[in-house]
Design brief:
Helix content is 20%, strand content 25%.
Length: 222
């Protein structure tokens, strides 16, 4: 089974209790960004990474706004479920932006990234990295992959969300950006069953086809 959850921000507790504790080797967990376990590669952080990589199930994560992108870039590139990822060891993978994974016969469009609303209060290279925002090249590459799939997937998994799905979050207009615009474009052009996104620290069904996920663990059932 495939399970989706939201921002973990370097907190292991979600993996040590509840539904995730009981998963087995046939299961896959996908974290919708702000994974947050890798900042300075301290011994404690690396011990947490090893613990996560040794779970029976696979853990995939998208990048969010708050990741150390320079550290993530040092991990080797690999392929998993038909898409590109970086392998952090064992069963732990960072899914690259705009990849389409095929898991249990389900096609999942995965696209991380987003712009920190508090970026002006952060320090570049310490707790903020400009790589948090996807490039035009990454969005164009995603569009080409979708074209090859006939603009049809089963699920869209992202950290941020289309503007049209964010009324509940009351994001100021000045904090919207080209990524939100791109997701609006996907909303209009891609056929999908459900769109799940994280970031906004809420567990809420936005529409029959859209859900914001934070602490919930959501299974992707047929």
């Amino acid at each position: 089974m495939i399970y989706i959850t939201g921002d973990t921000h370097g907190d292991l507790s979600r993996f040590k209790k509840g539904k995730l504790f009981w998963l087995g080797k046939k299961d896959t967990v996908i974290v919708l960004g702000d994974f947050g376990f890798l900042w300075e590669c301290t011994p404690q952080e690396m011990a947490q990474i090893r613990w996560l990589s040794q779970r029976r199930y696979k853990i995939l994560f998208l990048d969010g706004c708050h990741e150390n992108f320079e550290k993530l870039a040092h991990f080797p590139e690999t392929e998993i479920f038909g898409g590109k990822a970086r392998h952090l060891g064992g069963n732990l993978y960072y899914v690259q932006r705009g990849q389409i994974l095929t898991i249990e016969d389900k096609k999942l469009l995965c696209f991380g990234g987003g712009q920190s609303h508090d970026r002006y209060e952060r320090v570049e290279g310490e707790n903020w990295w400009p790589q948090e925002m996807p490039t035009q090249e990454e969005m164009d590459a995603c569009t080409r992959l979708l074209d090859a799939e006939g603009n049809q997937v089963d699920y869209i998994l992202t950290h941020d969300a289309p503007t049209r799905l964010m009324d509940f979050a009351r994001v100021p207009e000045e904090d919207l950006n080209q990524l939100n615009d791109y997701f609006d474009h996907l909303l209009n052009t891609v056929t999908y069953k459900q769109w799940l996104f994280g970031r906004y620290h809420r567990d809420i069904t936005v529409s029959p086809k859209a859900r914001c996920v934070f602490l919930d663990v959501v299974s992707l059932k047929d």
